[in-house]
């Protein structure tokens, strides 16, 4: 029994293939990438651990407040590896933005990927994240995913993607495989893998972020949560008056709990 009266966490299900679809999300749905350097740093950290732990990276997509990965665990359990990646990026983020506290939601989400049909589906789901979020028109318009690598285009950082396994599922001929995969990857679908349920805001996140930046002036979004309580409340009260912004959306973009936004 747990002495604190809380339910113990369920043990993470182990994949028979060692392959997992993983999602890291910002605490309170806060944004975890603010500029090009941030996106690149996360991918460099991923590459560092790929080489160090012999991970196989099949797909990724970095969105503003969450990350999707499809990978095979290497020399240690996936839980330890994900903790290393999260701690490394959070250390960089807190140093850069002079913030403290949790950057990521306590526990990453995962699902086992144990058959080839679902493996293909997960890759497509990951690549279509920015399309379904309304950020881009086509999967290869988003440069912070593995899609460009599968299409034979330049991507960052080189050497991160292990594409041969998936492409061989389409054809032994690499050019034919690329074309068949592209058609599959861009197909309309109702794929739901580790689905994120988000209330549709009246403003898009991009529009809301722009309005918040205009309101803050010279202050950076990540600084607000570290301000003294009264100053923070004053700013949040002002931001809540932005027409078309939802309180959930404001909490997510600012990296502040919904409760604090309601009370401001």
**Helical segment tally?**
10
Number of strands: 4
Question: Could you report the average pLDDT, rounded to the nearest whole number?
Answer: 89
Measured distance between first and last alpha carbons:
39 Å
Poorly predicted tracts of residues: 1-7, 196-201
Largest sheet: 4 strands, antiparallel
From the alpha carbons, calculate the radius of gyration and give it in angstroms: 20 Å
Read across the widest sheet, the strand sequence of neighbours is 2-3-1-4
Dominant shape: globular
As a percent range, the share of helical residues equals 40-55%
Q: What is the structural class?
A: alpha+beta
Element pattern in H and E: EHEEHEHHHHHHHH
The percent range for strand residues is 5-15%
Describe what this molecule looks like in 3D:
- The chain is α+β, with helices and mostly antiparallel strands and 264 residues long.
- The chain is built from ten helices and four strands.
- A four-stranded antiparallel β-sheet has the order 2-3-1-4, covered by helices on one side.
- Strand 2 (56-62) and strand 3 (66-72) form a beta hairpin.
- Helix 5 crosses helix 6.
- The radius of gyration is 20 Å and the shape is globular.
- The chain starts with 18 loop residues before the first strand and ends with a helix.
Attribute tags:
10 helices; alpha+beta; four-stranded antiparallel beta sheet; disordered N terminus
What would a concise description of this structure say?
The chain has 264 residues and is of the alpha+beta class. The protein has helices at 36-53, 78-97, 116-132, 147-150, 164-170, 174-185, 205-216, 229-239, 247-254, 258-263; strands at 19-25, 56-62, 66-72, 109-112.
